[in-house]
Design a protein that fits this description.
Shape: globular
CATH architecture of the domain at 134-363: 3-Layer(aba) Sandwich
Number of helices: 23
CATH topology of the domain at 134-363: Rossmann fold
Strand order of the largest sheet: 1-6-7-5-8-9-10
CATH class of the domain at 134-363: Alpha Beta
Number of strands: 10
Largest sheet: 7 strands, mixed
Radius of gyration: 27 Å
Amino acid sequence: MTLNLKDELPWYKTFAKKLSSISTSRERAPTYSTVASTGISAIGAADVPPAGAMADPKERATAVPIGRVAADSVSGGTSGSIERDTVARAPSINPKPHHRNDLSTTQDGTKSGPSGTHVANIAADLPSRVEETLSACPQFRILVAGKTGIGKSSLISSVFNIGLKDIDIAHDRAGRADITHGYTSPENPRFILHDSQGFEPGSTENWDAAEEFLRKRAPGSNLPPQDKVHAIWLCIETPRSGSRVEQTGDENLLSLARELKYTVVAVFTKYDILVNEHIRKARKSGVSPADVRRIAEKDAEEYFNTRIKSLREKGVACAKVSTESKYPHCMKTLQNLAEITRQSLHDVESDLWVPWAVAQQTSAKQKVDFSIREGFKKYWLDLGTSSVFQGQRFIDCVARIHDDILEVWNFHDPDKVLSGVDFRTKMVQLVSPLLNESEAETDEHDALSQYVDVMSLASAVGTTLAQFLGGAGIALFALKYLYGKYQKIPMTARYLGAYIVDLTLVLHELFITMLTKEPPRPVSWELVHDAFMRYKGTDSKVNHDRVCDLASRDVRLEEKVADLIRELLKMNKE
């Protein structure tokens, strides 16, 4: 039975008039500012983007978002500075800085965000799968050892996306580093840094402190996983003509690390200087200008491999890096270090790659891999027939998938752009055509024929419903479906599969774009909007068609969605 809304529901007549008046202005709309001003599109976001971010303030209205992941009220330290962890245990952190929210409780028990936005949390029985995984070890703890001036600060800044001004390791103060102090940063709360100076000949103070520290926090100790040191980066300046590869103190550290079964990577810094040395040699030898760079890179690589051969023969993982942005292969060297570290962790203790993948901020591939693995554990399984989502509002199911993927990428997002109303609105709009095309598939028991559901929806969204529909162009059917109960039908699988693909590829585009910026690379609405539009304009419709084709087959859709993501990003399946 189908309900004639116009005849039966008085509120619909008022709504229809508003919708009609808005529809007449569609030639100048649908502007994004109109869409973003309404909370229906927010999938539960409680955060409003910074003033002036895309939308015209005159067009904004009060948002009424529904379905929000509760923010954890734990501290990540004072913003803008590195905090010290002087005790054995990892500091209390906010694992999701982009989800932090200043909320006050209103009289009716709901929560109000910065602009009066009302928040209703996602059901407690849809907990974050990513946070569950990371709860065993929420931060990656790393020791960076090496003499002064070796480039440790620049290395940490580049790999973990931390501003140089906030890194207070004693990189220019010989002998003053305290290895027991753990440094954390609000710009990336997923790692803890310990710093050790080089071990100068004739001085045992630094070495004695390092040995005591490493024995106490060794992989085989009885400490909780989050309190152990998970990896050591031994920083050595890339050898050039006449220089020695290993110092006595370095050899002692490597020997101790082998004894205690630590993951160690010898990180050879300032590799660009070696390349420049070979560029000068190539020019002097009469190499044509067009071939100088290529030949110099080849010769430098051969020289480097020869000089570190003995170290590799001892089983030490080695990586050459450059943090000089003018060096053409700077980012490639840092991504290689990320991969070597990950592989070294896997060889020792495979679970440690999880906090590493979240903490590091150079390898998009590791982010995607971890998102897929976490999705396969729970929320990506059986997208169209999920027992986990059974009985939940569909909008909350989408929100849970959105937030778990976002958690893995660990962007430095001080303005909460990626968890805010505007971005969530754009993602819902992007996939909503799949709902409009599939209206006939819905279960008649959950369709618009139910008085209670329709009236409840109207009451929840209030007058912003007309603004949303007029501005975003989302049909009433699609809106009802998003805010109705999860349904075990093919349309559900198609929508969730497409949403996963879209969000992953948009975040990947954003991540790669931000790698060109200097740390700490904060997220901005302009960067997010540009990444979104690039993806939407070139790939989204084709990708939706491919997801729909996969969903029509008798296959495990989550696996095919993961394969599609890897294919589109040119990633090898592991």
